[in-house]
Protein: Lysine 2,3-aminomutase
Amino acid sequence: MQQHVQIQPAEAFVPPRFTVYQHRQIDKIEALHQLPEHMRFEMKVVASVFPFRVNNFVIEELIDWDKVPNDPVFQLTFPQRGMLDDESYEQMAALHRSNPSTEEVMTLAQEIRLKLNPHPAGQMEKNVPELDGERVEGIQHKYKETVLFFPSQGQYCHSYCTFCFRWAQFVGKATRFNNNDTELLHGYLREHTEVTDLLMTGGDPMVMRTVKLRGYLEKLKEPEFDHIRTIRIGTKSLTFWPYRYLTDPDAQDLLALLKELVDAGKHVSIMAHINHKQELRSPATREAIALIRKTGAQIRTQAPLLNNINTDPNMWAEMWKEQTQLGMIPYYMFIERDTGAKRYFELPLYKTWETFREAYKQISGVSRTVRGPSMSAGPGKVEVSGVSEIAGEKVFVLRFIQARNPDWVQRPFFAKYDETATWLDDLKPAFGEEKFFWEDEYNAM
Structure:
């Protein structure tokens, strides 16, 4: 029997009608008409390659149009010229000027996308497991304790983030990764009792109707799944469409499902992607946070450090403080991954550490649950713990927060200091070593 959670009466939050704009409707966004024509053309060109989707709540509630194009949420959701290298941009711009067919644009876009490392860190080669000798599409099992599931119904978002490392999920079937087989998910979890955590990911699982989400999760309350202790749901909905928890037709059932899972003994964690404190200013978002907390579920927050969006350490400190005050748990500062439009968003590794450190110094112990800056690289999550000088050599101090081999976790290792390095692959071992301690084992996997 479902236990319904009482939410604030709907009349207290009257939602706008959900309206979404994709690349073919970009000219219909009235707010963009204030921008110069050349900027609107650049957006069309870039949106031909990268996914573009934005809704009216983001446009009307989160973007400060007096500060565009430098507004952080505008940069977060609208395509920018610098996301493409000059050669790719000029190719696509020239095509647009020639009145091309849709097929011509799609063909060139796919050629460009394949150069942008659409599935980084061995996602397709090393993360996809097998069941009865066959690849289990739609599941990734990189770390022993954690399984990621990509439900087919959740492979889009209320709005897309320009930096998203999962951008390839949204631009065509050739690069998409998903599954809608509930029996396959449950069968895999039943077989793998070492798994304690299920992460529902996408896209955004919260775009699904609750009846679909319930189909994946409700069965996990049964005794045969007692080994699944934690259910995580990755989502941007708290800030991009908070009405999912307030006034959507099945909002009550969604909150009830979270409470049922908690009451069944599961740790339920909403993994909220929040990239800038500006996203927290809506009263609807704050109410959604409160309602989720009433179910017993926790909310953990995470975001990458992004050039052109959130490089100010003072902003990070204020955001973590505010998240803690609202009852959320700051969880990760990530480093922009080596895929897609990374050229526009990436920062040197030394700068990521300096920014994290400057922000971390300003917060109290209750907010120091946050970890980072962390690279979700092929061998695991690698934290840049610091920059130091050891035996006369300037080095990066690194460690695994999580790893393909659990024995690698928390073992410090060192890389030569390099001011141009932006990712693990750019680093060389320090102290004359030929390889990092984990390299041979990782390459043999």
Q: What stands out?
A: Residues 48 and 390 are 48 Å apart (CA to CA).
